Fold each of these.
Amino acid sequence: MTRFVHDKFAKDFLEELLKSYGDVKSSEKVSGEVKEIDVVFTPDRQHNSNLKLLGLLGRFAEYPAIFEPFRNAAKQDEICDCIIKLLEVRAGLRRKAKVQNIQLKESDTPKLWILTPTASSSLLSSFNFNQKQGCMSGVYFLGNALRTAIVVIHHLPQIPETLWLRILGRGSTQEQAIVELQTLSLNHPFQKATLELVYNLRENLRVNQDLDSEDRELIMRLEPYYQQNREQAKLEGRLEGRLEERRQIIENLLRVRFGSLSNELQAIVSPILALSPEEFTPLLMQLSTEELIARFGSL
């Protein structure tokens, strides 16, 4: 049961990271016997300039891609199924190109990225997966014609470039990635959304009765982070509520004085918010429209 919780987390996580850079489809069905691809990604060339924010995952997303994440170590039959799905997608693209009388470019056919926490050397050798010269450790490729690679997450170096893949690992690898995620700048474009997904994973695991020891440990590891996040959210909510209440007071005072809010008056509300009620109340009650705009319009 918990495997499906982790599967959903992996799909939601990849979709959240990649949606800014192109079209993302999860649980995409392919022809033949009914099969589903976990995540299909088609990059938007106009929004690829910031892919480096995703490190190694961003390099995978420079071209059309199929992502198949596994919570447990991918088995031989599961890897075969992934390759079959890739070949069926490629066959569909070829048929479509033939109907449209266009030439299908190799760069338009997706690459398959199998994401697995661990993989034995015997499994890798059974498929003849090999590490390419100059490529990062933990990424192993089949022959070029198959456009397939397996990413063994626990073999990846613990560097910032691999963070967004190590979050999909297990045990200490995932724990270290979550710690690193917490230390990212608060204005990082993916930090808050990823933490929310991690906390949702925690909540979804908690409602399951049949948890293994690793999932119980994951819940315990996330508990202090979760509580800290909730307290921060409550604080932000209180501050936001107070700010909105103060905005309403300012707008009501301006309406009382001038009957309505012109565009010029509306524009000075935000600068006035920087003042305390004791400071802005006499100003709003005494200054004319022109004086208020002159004082706050340039801030």
Note: The mean pLDDT is 82.
Amino acid sequence: MEKKHIWLVLIIFFVLGIAFQVQAKGCKDLSEGQTLYVPVYSHIYIGNKANPYLLTVTLSIRNINPLHPITLSVVDYYGTQGKLIKHYLDKPLSLPPMASTRYIILSKDKEGGSGANFIVNWSSKKPVNPPIVESIMIGTQSQQGISFTSRGQVIVQTNP
């Protein structure tokens, strides 16, 4: 290979390398960690007498990063009045790339109330795509069923 071709190949690789770095830095959604507030409802109210309609809650945490794990350090469940009801983690939990975990509040557990929530704290050693954190509520009574979802809201952001 001639010197001209070697230099041309090197220049192309250099330019492509810079382009890929700029593209990665331009991906503003990458994070090294977040604290999320996730609204959940152990029940909602229906009818003229505002009767409670009991719901089963599933908190779903999905690591959507294809290359790097994330670490969950806090998964805490709070009631309507802001009182901590339950710590779900005794120690940090590593969630591998593309893996998910879930936490369930049974419909018979009314302690959280209509204003319950989860606080979820995750981190990563490298900038990653933030996980998808959702709550799914579902309930059935007689011949009626209801289901809906809610997404987590970032309240503290750790940027790369």
Note: Confidence is low (pLDDT under 50) at residues 19-24.
Amino acid sequence: MHDLPILLVEDDPIMGESMSHRLQLEHYPVEWVRDLCAARDSLRHRLYPLVLSDIRLPDGDGEQLLATMAERYGGCCPPVVFMTGFGSVEQAVRLVRGGAWDYIQKPFDLDALMHRIREWTAPGTQRCDAWFGISEAAQALEQLITRVAQLELPVLIQGESGTGKELVARRIHADMAKTRERIPYVAINCAALSETLLESELFGHEAGAFTGASRRHAGVFEQAHGGVLLLDEIGDMPLGAQAKLLRVLQDGQVRRVGGEKALQVHVRLICATHKPLNRLVETGSFREDLYYRISGLPIHLPPLRDRPEDTVWLAHRHVDELNARTGSCRRLDPRFAAWARLQPWNGNVRELFATVDRAYHLSADCWVRRERSSLPGTDCSRRGVEPLASGPEPLDRYLARVEHDYLEKCVSDNDGGITKTATALGISRKTLWEKLRRYRGGPQRR
């Protein structure tokens, strides 16, 4: 369900009722007004995620509406899409040049319109209870976590750096805490400590156990007793520490460094690594018996490039989180979203969030835009097109890739303006629009 309503400005009672009813069936709240005066009154009281307006209104036209919105919101004008008959297409083109996002020509198919509205209002695809995305892989992960949280077996989370392994661990802990009170959650990065310090952090130490140990220290197993312990980057754990960890998992007891008394501990163990442990076992750098002990419930996190539909969703969600922290009301620019969907994101969600962070804090108004001078990966080499492993690339694929990269560069150089880019290229706006839609896999807005 979407929070903010779409503003529909349509004087035709049949068309207005039909569109309003369809929007509500698709779970889009809608505010329907029938003239320019009512639209101006609505715009004074609320910021809409999308405005759908007929160009010709009983008391004015689209140009007057656009001027009102520009005066009211300045650089933070809500996206507006005009509906036009054949006779006013030229006026619709002028409106797009003047700041409207797009126009659609009557008569239009409502199914096609709804598809485009989903593109225009990308945040509306969010599920309020989702953590990882809207793709099938993300939804399957949500369901798996719910089942895993009800079990007591150890969990092994594997995936590339930045895919959200610790977030999965925290989600498991959160689901467990729904049925139990005050469950501790403790995490340690096994790659950040030397073997000596790692042993002390894992099992604790007594006062005087080594130089600098001035007082007793409880290890993470003690701290997490009765709760969840995350051993992050366990693939980097030294073999000596692996042997001691295995003993603890077998006996359920820890002995502090320098101590004589064994302490009984019970933890829900979650291990995470970006390294393939089965290969480490083959090379002898990870104990096979420990591998089988910790991999009771394996979870694999797919990289972001394998679920591109989650990219824009995650970017919108991160902007919402930043707004909550700063008290702002910024929104992700659709051209930023279109660009982000094309990137390979080798650093996965962590890289995406870092990029959104920079764009958010460098934003001059309420739009989070892609800044070519400040964002990484804006060159054509990062379009996500992989070369063939061997042999020449097929000619049609090569030509398509070159054309795609060149068109994207031209659009970027013209700040996302489709009309301006088409004029510079000597082709029609429609031709450029169709090419971009084919390459990007969806409708464009400007």
Note: The first helix runs from residue 13 to 25.
